[in-house]
Structures are given as structure tokens and as C-alpha cells.
């Protein structure tokens, strides 16, 4: 199984922070939800959350609670929320035994052309000394939001898999979510230490690969 597929399966199915029907309710005020509303809903703990599920989001969950309460973040932690552009990024930097470790989590959403749905993305990445170092919880998680039902559910139907089919089994893959624009940047980390990047174009309901 490709390493990318393992990461996506882990991200999509190890988290059980949802209702019994698999949906995540998104509460908001105003005419439509913002990136803050999507993040709050996604990070909300559920009564059946398992210990490993909690570990996957505890770092950013604590930072998100500090953000909502206007409290100072812990040393080494930053959280930037751009409501206007529907984007947020969390970074947790730690130094240990001469190494610098970074957990980076990006979140954003897209409006689908059908005007009935949105696509929310939660992108978890781990780095060591500036190089990608795949962690247990790394991967891209996608949720499709239904405007009428005001809830979202996990999905893998966004065209991203097409790009992964062209990726060798010994290559790690990461994504960069857009703060401006709508396209995804995909980076392949080769065993040699080299990397290559390309763009996945947004088509109104998902992404095109070449």
C-alpha cells in the first residue's frame, strides 16, 4: 500500500470525532460558517473518542481553545487564523537533543460550484530539522459540508487520489493548502532526500491532476 494511502486512511478513519451517522455538526452565527466554525466543529471531542484519537488533535485542540479565549499560546506554538481567506495554520516547534521538530497543521475550505456544499481540509505534517519526517498522524483529511444540513462528513472523493496513483511506493507525499487562490500544491519527498512539487488545479468540485 502506498504510504500516502496509509496516511489518508489513518487521518480519515482513526478520528472518531463525529456523530453515529458519521456527520459532524457545524454550529455558527450569521449567514454562513467561517473557517473558525469548521475548525471548532472538527476539533470538538465526542463522547466515544478513543485515547489515540485524542492524541491526534490534542496539541492543536489546546491551542485552539487558547485562541478562542484570547489566551497566550504555549512557548513554541503559533496559530494564525485568516478568516477573510478561510485559512488557518498551526505550528508547534520543539528542540530536543540538538534536533528541531515541527508539527504543522493547515486548515482551509472551498466553496463548491453547486453552491450547496463546501470542502474542508485538515492537513497534518511533521518535520525534523527542516525535512519532512512522516509522523503517526500525518495526512490530508477532507470533509464535505452540506449547506442545508449544516453538517459535514469525511470524504475521499475530491480527485486527489488520481495524483497519488502516479507516486512510487517509497515516496512520501505532503500537501500545501492555499491561503490565497484555490489550488493544492503537492510535494513528493524522494528517498534520496530530493523533492519535487506540482500543482493540483481546483475545478469547482475537486482537483485535476495534469
Which helices and strands, and how do they pair?
Blueprint (H helix, E strand, L loop, with lengths): L2 H11 L9 E3 L9 H9 L7 H19 L7 E6 L4 E10 L2 E13 L5 E12 L2 E2 L6 E8 L4 E5 L4 H5 L7 E5 L7 E6 L5 E8 L4 E2 L2
Antiparallel strand pairs: 1-8, 2-3, 3-4, 4-5, 5-6, 5-7, 7-8, 9-10, 10-11, 11-12
What does it look like?
29% of the residues are buried. 21% of the residues lie in helices and 38% in strands. Strand 11 and strand 12 (207-208) form a beta hairpin. With 210 residues, it is an alpha+beta fold. Strands 1, 2, 3, 4, 5, 6, 7 and 8 form an eight-stranded antiparallel beta sheet that branches. Strands 9-10-11-12 form a four-stranded antiparallel beta sheet.
Which percent bin holds the helix content? 10-25%
* Average pLDDT, all residues: 85
* Helix-strand topology string: HEHHEEEEEEEHEEEE
Cα distance spanning the termini: 23 Å
**Outline type:** globular
Proportion of beta-strand residues: 35-45%
**Unreliable segments of 5+ consecutive residues:** 1-19
Radius of gyration: 17 Å
Structural class: alpha+beta
| Helical run tally | 4
Q: Which key phrases capture this entry?
A:
210 residues, alpha+beta, eight-stranded antiparallel beta sheet, four-stranded antiparallel beta sheet, 4 helices, 12 strands
